[in-house]
Specification:
The structure is a homodimer.
Chain A lengths: L34 H16 L6 H7 L4 H7 L3 H26 L4 H18 L4 H9 L4 H28 L8 H19 L12 H16 L2
Helix pairs in contact in A: 1-2, 1-4, 1-6, 4-5, 4-7, 5-7, 5-8, 5-9, 7-8, 8-9
The first copy, chain A, binds a DNA duplex through α3.
Chain lengths: 227, 227
Amino acid sequence: MAVRRAPKPSLATLAPPRPARGSRTPRWRRRKAARPAEILDAALATFVEGGYAATRIEEIARRAGVSKGTMYLYFRNKEALFRAVVAHSMVPMVERGEEIARAHRGSSRDLLSSILLTWWDSLEASPASGLTKLMVAEARNFPGPTRLFVKEVFLRRRRLLTRVIRRGIRNGEFRRVRPELAVRLAIAPILLASIWKHSFQQRESQPLDLRALVRLHAETFLRGIAK
Amino acid sequence: MAVRRAPKPSLATLAPPRPARGSRTPRWRRRKAARPAEILDAALATFVEGGYAATRIEEIARRAGVSKGTMYLYFRNKEALFRAVVAHSMVPMVERGEEIARAHRGSSRDLLSSILLTWWDSLEASPASGLTKLMVAEARNFPGPTRLFVKEVFLRRRRLLTRVIRRGIRNGEFRRVRPELAVRLAIAPILLASIWKHSFQQRESQPLDLRALVRLHAETFLRGIAK
DNA sequence: ATTTAATTACCTACCAGTCAGTAAGTAGCC
DNA sequence: GGCTACTTACTGACTGGTAGGTAATTAAAT
């Protein structure tokens, strides 16, 4: 027997189950507008759980409450679907951070702290946080989407925080650290926590209070680079 | 066309290429003792690059300088090979950290700093560092190996560092932070750097000096939790 | 009645796993 | 030292099941 993939304890579906054949309600509905987003959401969740290669199109279809054939009405093939997932999930991740920065007034300390906490909260809330783990896992296999992700999410966020740190150094709040290094230290615990959440989280005995972790991080990091 | 996996720009093989059919040297040699380790090394590298499902047994065989059939002489099936890779790669990762701790005498500050730096150096040097990324990617698909890895590597390392932090708090070097949170902050940048190295590293414009990053981390973190 | 979103049945490339065969090594014999 | 008989590490063509992708068909909506 060919054991291609590890068996997965498939979780609950995202979409409601379709009515049975005999029922009065139609077996399916035509919902051309809603399908793409539903499929992309289901695809993100499934890809994040099992990785690209181990994910079956049919499983995504099932979760999106749609048949396999329908998948190919909206996406040319599996890889195109993957690319669309990356592009689609990226948007919410990018937008939040920037608008926080624009809105903020005050010290660099407070700004940094506020960005980190809000960033975590939006990661915590959104399934898009799974994208990070997904990209880490598939980076080598998909250079195109990876470049896009690195450029539009990672580098962009890093640039934002680098500016904050530079400002803090300039006006004497922070000591003279190399900003391109310090920014990675600021980011690391949050990024790792979100990767964690999508891989080992459930295995650990007690669900740690990750928000408290991020708060301690902001505090500790700021003390660490304070003048 | 079935696009099952992304095409991989297969890198140089680990084992020397076998001589061609006509040559004087034998087409293969009997090296029963050396095979398992060679296969495991090739398997680790290949799994780390592409992930479990996208990795073909034949590709691992090629890199190990062996035929596909031979793979099945040494490992029952693909999953057994994967499990063996995890178990085999774990040993060097665990050993180092503990012996460092045993050897060290001095302040908690110095001990912590020394553990972090030495840990990074061994991660940097060893291909076993790829195991972290691999486990992050495959955690959901392989509960067994994941449990083993979490228990024998993560929790063990965390416990070691937690002890150091506790000691530091007790003897007044560090302020009263929650050790189980602080330890994660200490670990995060290093873990993330090693994941980085195996996913995005090559894509980035300039290869950052990661050791300098770890040094700055140790310094910043210690300032951050200092009393 | 017509259009087309969605389904279902089907095709086929791919790869994990198998096994009959081959040749590298080895020991016994002269 | 050289020849032969034997063992077994190793090879690679082959198979079967799985899952990506397609085409014929159905039924929702207007």
